[in-house]
């Protein structure tokens, strides 16, 4: 099972009988143990994982755990740990290119990050990332690293987007969530232009609000992927502060409040209409 998929090709991944232990964790609980350079995680019914120095991963499995289950955690929590170890800021969001601009879609679990990204990409936008979006600073300018090649979507979402679930790889042990393969945009680094922060409300129309001032930094700070990891990685905080300040000052931020019950096509249409009417387009 050493042919598992992982976004970073320069990371050495090994299946072992017993993973290395974090000897001196700065932070630990029943699931995770970590310090600045090491990370370990145990998942009941799946196995154990270890990552160190941003370059090496070990994993061991329990009986019955398959490649699909292992990849779910490798491409989520372990991927986040590797990025944190490399001091690459990971944001919990998806991203795409639309009419010459790079969009990053953030929000709580279930807000519709992947669904909105899928709707745009199936309508002609270029796909960049899903769920975890790495951001690096180059001479003070933030850039998204485009490393993903698939979206995680619910069966109902696929149906709404007129995509067949048959033949797609299911996620974990679910029969109602799947990976939808996507062709990435050409290139590796993309300067983010617009943040869409999606929130869910009980009912009503889709509302939009331009986020300004210090609220921009606070909103971005809340979108760090696995922020609890920083309890064991104190050196990351000052570097991330600089990255978040740059992101907040060099991008436009739009809060999108959508009703709990809304079709993806309606949300996509409402966002397109707002963007068209509020100057969010490159000439």
Structure description:
It is a single chain. The chain has 283 residues and is of the alpha+beta class. The chain folds into two domains: 12-85, no CATH class; 89-277, Rossmann fold (3-Layer(aba) Sandwich), CATH 3.40.50. It is 25% helix and 33% strand. It contains six helices and 17 strands. The chain has helices at 67-85, 113-121, 155-160, 214-221, 236-250, 264-277; strands spanning 12-15, 27-28, 32-34, 38-43, 47-52, 56-61, 89-98, 101-107, 126-129, 132-138, 141-145, 150-154, 177-181, 189-190, 194-201, 207-210, 252-259. The strands form three sheets. Strands 7, 8, 9, 10, 11, 14, 15, 16 and 17 form a nine-stranded mixed beta sheet that branches. A six-stranded mixed beta sheet has the order 1-6-5-4-3-2, with helices on one face. A two-stranded antiparallel sheet has the order 12-13. Helix 2 packs across helix 6 and helix 4 (214-221) packs across helix 5 (236-250). The longest helix has 19 residues, at 67-85.
- Low-confidence blocks of residues: none
Shape by Cα distribution: globular
Give the integer mean of the pLDDT values: 92
Secondary-structure-based class equals alpha+beta
How many β-strand stretches?
Answer: 17
For the record, what CATH class of the largest domain applies?
Alpha Beta
CA(first)-CA(last) distance: 48 Å
- Percent of residues in helical segments? 25-40%
The CATH architecture of the largest domain comes to: 3-Layer(aba) Sandwich
CATH topology of the largest domain: Rossmann fold
Number of helices: 6
- Proportion of residues in extended strands: 25-35%
Largest β-sheet summary = 9 strands, mixed
Query: How many discrete domains?
Result: 2
Helix/strand order: EEEEEEHEEHEEEEHEEEEHHEH
Whole-number radius of gyration? 19 Å
């Amino acid at each position: 099972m050493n042919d598992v998929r992982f976004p970073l090709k320069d990371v050495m991944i090994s299946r072992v009988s017993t993973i290395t232990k974090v000897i001196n964790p700065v932070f630990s609980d029943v699931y995770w143990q970590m310090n600045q350079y090491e990370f370990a995680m145990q998942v009941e019914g799946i196995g154990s994982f270890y990552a160190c120095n941003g370059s090496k991963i070990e994993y061991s499995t329990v009986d019955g755990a398959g490649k699909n289950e292992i990849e779910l955690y490798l491409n989520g929590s372990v991927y986040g740990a590797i990025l944190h170890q490399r001091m690459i800021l990971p944001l919990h969001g998806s991203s795409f290119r639309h009419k010459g601009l790079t969009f990053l879609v953030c929000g709580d679990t279930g807000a519709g990050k992947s669904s909105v990204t899928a709707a745009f990409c199936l309508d002609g936008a270029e796909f960049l990332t899903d769920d975890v979006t790495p951001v690096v600073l180059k001479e003070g300018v933030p850039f998204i690293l485009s490393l993903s090649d698939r979206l995680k979507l619910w069966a109902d979402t696929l149906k709404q987007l007129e995509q067949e679930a048959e033949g797609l790889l299911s996620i974990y042990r679910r029969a109602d969530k799947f990976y939808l393969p996507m062709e990435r945009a050409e290139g590796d680094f993309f300067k983010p232009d617009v943040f869409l922060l999606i929130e869910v409300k009980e009912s009503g129309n889709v509302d939009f609000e331009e986020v300004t001032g210090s609220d921009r930094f606070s909103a971005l700070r809340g979108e760090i992927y696995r922020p609890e990891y920083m309890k064991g990685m104190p050196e990351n905080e000052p570097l991330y502060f600089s990255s978040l300040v740059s992101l907040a000052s060099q991008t436009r931020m739009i809060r999108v409040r959508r009703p709990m019950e809304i079709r993806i096509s309606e949300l996509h249409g409402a966002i397109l209409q707002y963007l068209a009417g509020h100057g969010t387009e490159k000439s």
